[in-house]
Amino acid sequence: MTETVTVRVPAKVNVQLAVGGARPDGFHDLANVFLAVGLYDEVTVTPADELRVTCAGPDAAQVPLDRTNLAARAALELARRYGVDPAVHLHIAKDIPVAGGMAGGSADGAGALLACDTLWGTNAPREELLDICAELGSDVPFSLVGGAALGTGRGELLRPLEVGGTFHWVFAMAERGLSTPAVFREFDRMNEGVRVPEPVASQDLLDALAKGDADALARTVSNDLQPAALSLFPALADTLAAGRAAGALAALVSGSGPTTAFLAPDAESARTVGRALTASGTCRAVRVTESPAPGATVLG
Ligand code: ATP
C-alpha cells in the first residue's frame, strides 16, 4: 500500500475578473479567466490515527489547522462519499500567500483531494473530483485542472482555454491579507444604485491568450474587483505604480487582492520589474514566475 502521497498545486491569477451584480443568494455571477502560475503549495498525505493538519511556510501561522481548513474539508468529503476512514495527516508546504487573492486555500483543497484519492485508491472519476471541488469553493475546480480556463457561474463552471505561449509574471505580496467576502461587500457598496452589466469574457483577451501575445494580453487584462480592493487597501496603488514604472506591460490586483500581478514582456524584464518592486519598499515579498502551470499533480 502507498504510505505517503504528495501533490503539487499551482496558484492562479485572474487575467479577467468581470463581476455581475449581487444575486438574490448573495453570490455574484462572474466571467473569470483563470491562469495558473508557477507558484505552488504541496500537500502531503500520510495514514495517521486521526485526521490532522499541519502547515509550514512564511504564512503558516495564518492557516487554520482545524476542520475548516480546505484540505481537511476535501479529505472529509471524499471519505464520506466512499465510506473511507479519514484518518490521515495532511501536511501543507505553503508557498502561496494566505488571503492573497491567489487561491491558496483552494489549491490545498484540490491538492488534498487528489492526494487522498491516490492514497486511498478510491479512483474517483474526474467528474466527481470536480464536483467535490465545486462544493468546497468557487476557485477549487480550477486549482485541480490548472492551465487556463474560463469560469462562469460563481466561477466554478469551467471551460479550458488554449494558451499559445509562456507569459512572464511578477507577483508582489502585500504586508497584510484581504478577505475575499469583504472585497465583494465593498464592490456592492461602491456599486449601490448602479446597474452592473452582465459579466462577459473579452474575446480579445481570449485571443491574446491563445496567441501567447503578451502585449495584447496587457491591453485586455481587467479586474472589476480592483477598485474595491484599492478602496480597502489604498497603498496597493503605490505597488502598482512601482511595477509600471519598472517596465511592466500591465499591473493589476490579483483576484480579490491584495497580491499585485505584473505582466512582463520576457523573463529578463520580469527580473528587472521584480528587483524594482523589492527596492520600492511597497511590498513584503516578490516572486518572479511563468504561466501557464499544470493543475494538481501527484509527485514522485
Ligand atoms: P481566493 O483567491 O480564492 O479568493 P485567497 O487566496 O485570497 O483566496 P486563501 O489563502 O485561500 O485566500 O485564504 C482565505 C481564508 O481561507 C484564510 O484566511 C483562511 O482562514 C481560510 N483557509 C482555509 N483553508 C486554508 C488553507 N488550506 N490555506 C489557507 N487558508 C485557508
TrEMBL record:
Keywords, ordered alphabetically: ATP-binding, Isoprene biosynthesis, Kinase, Nucleotide-binding, Transferase
Classification via Gene3D superfamilies: 3.30.230.10, GHMP kinase, C-terminal domain
Record pathway: Isoprenoid biosynthesis; isopentenyl diphosphate biosynthesis via DXP pathway; isopentenyl diphosphate from 1-deoxy-D-xylulose 5-phosphate: step 3/6
SUPFAM superfamilies named among the record's database cross-references: GHMP Kinase, C-terminal domain (SSF55060), Ribosomal protein S5 domain 2-like (SSF54211)
EC number: 2.7.1.148
Reactions catalysed: 4-CDP-2-C-methyl-D-erythritol + ATP = 4-CDP-2-C-methyl-D-erythritol 2-phosphate + ADP + H(+)
Residues at the active site: 12, 139
Record-annotated GHMP kinase C-terminal domain positions: 206-280
Group of enzyme by EC: transferase
GO biological process: isopentenyl diphosphate biosynthetic process, methylerythritol 4-phosphate pathway; terpenoid biosynthetic process
Domain GHMP kinase N-terminal intervals: 69-147
Amino acids binding ATP: 97-107
Gene Ontology MF term list: 4-(cytidine 5'-diphospho)-2-C-methyl-D-erythritol kinase activity; ATP binding
HAMAP family in the cross-refs: IspE
Record function comment: Catalyzes the phosphorylation of the position 2 hydroxy group of 4-diphosphocytidyl-2C-methyl-D-erythritol.
Family: Belongs to the GHMP kinase family. IspE subfamily.
Protein's name in the database: 4-diphosphocytidyl-2-C-methyl-D-erythritol kinase
Organism: Streptomyces populi
Gene: ispE
